Amino acid sequence: MVLDPRAFPSPFAAHWDLDPEVVFLNHGSFGACPRAVLQLQQELRAQPQQEPVRFLHRELEARLDPAREELARTVGCAAEDLVFVPNATTGVNTVLASLPLRSGDEILCTDHEYNACRNALERVAARCGARIVTASVPFPLQSVQQVVDAVFAAVTPRTVLLLLDHVTSPTGLVLPVGPIAQALADRGIDTLVDGAHAPGMLPLDLRTLGAAYYTGNCHKWLCAPKGSALLYVRRDRQQGLRPLAISHGANSPRTDRSRFQLEFDFTGTADVTPFLCVPAALRFLGSLLPGGLPALQAHNRELTLFGRERLCSALGTPPPAPPDLIAGLGSVVLPASQEPPVGPLGLDPLQVRLWERHRVEVPVMRWPSPAVRLLRVSPQIYNTSAQYEWLAELVAAELRAERCAG
What we know:
Blueprint: E1 23-24, H1 27-30, H2 35-50, H3 52-58, H4 60-75, E2 82-85, H5 88-98, E3 106-110, H6 115-128, E4 131-135, H7 144-153, E5 159-165, H8 177-185, E6 190-194, H9 206-209, E7 213-217, E8 229-233, H10 259-265, H11 273-276, H12 278-287, H13 292-315, E9 330-334, H14 349-358, E10 360-361, E11 364-367, E12 372-377, H15 385-405
Parallel strand pairs: 1-10, 3-4, 3-5, 5-6, 6-7
Antiparallel strand pairs: 2-8, 7-8, 9-12, 11-12
Helix pairs in contact: 2-3, 5-6, 12-13, 13-15
């Protein structure tokens, strides 16, 4: 298959094993790991096959500690307050399952919350009789203050926890988690931040953010292998915070490490190589541009804003949020469609057509349910502005055909 010349990727794409016949414009869903990091992972995976006991028993802590330390420096916290989990959804479930919630307690979230984590809230609330309160954040929206006002309008004397996305998955907004978490802490309310997209996309300083709990993926914008994420727990909240799988650390007599790390660092036999590859991913990303990771974050934000602008221009619609709420992820509002979702995954027909006709991989979502139809922009350095120019043309043409068919 020959792609439109305007869809040729960046020279940086040579570092990834992405299918050259696909215009991959969906880094935000699962990330993509560079070839050099995957090669390291393959080497590491061979080692427990050669001597499993040495790798998983004798050497595991000595391998995890430097990886944790390098990640902690990147996200701005002490290594002692950080553990690895497979993904941010696991991180959210872990915290929720550990909280001593009672009947009548209120857990606050927004209507932009990621569906998987909303489901975790529903399960925990049903078990203990807690109530979920949903703050309605307008979209499209005009300012950060609208987010703050919506959250605090929903706080009551019964609120015990806020679950808040740092970067919303469907709408691509960077929410003001720092000011909100700090203000709620003054009222005795903890914040659990679902930072699934934030590590690698945004500069982070978890020490000063003010959240009691923070979880984020390393396999998305940090480009580590899939199955790597962080869970930060503030020191005063670590006691009683337990992994989902209870293992040997629960009754270990050791005193040289915190119970927090003893429990989380080994929860049973598993592939730990995604965690061990995080430093290599950090170094790789830092080597791509002269300014290191901050320069890469700025590059991806500029490309996100460019892609959003080109799509909005082609569709004749305004951007749904101001630039100060956008980083490496953004959404564009599409006209409503009467076509039903397609297949077992419930994909929007436009997403299906872009894939089947043009081999363009880009998410088109209906949020919440069919109320708003969104196309999400989520570039990485292997993408180019030409790809988004081509996408804008394709989307405009497909929507014209949609209108004619309707």
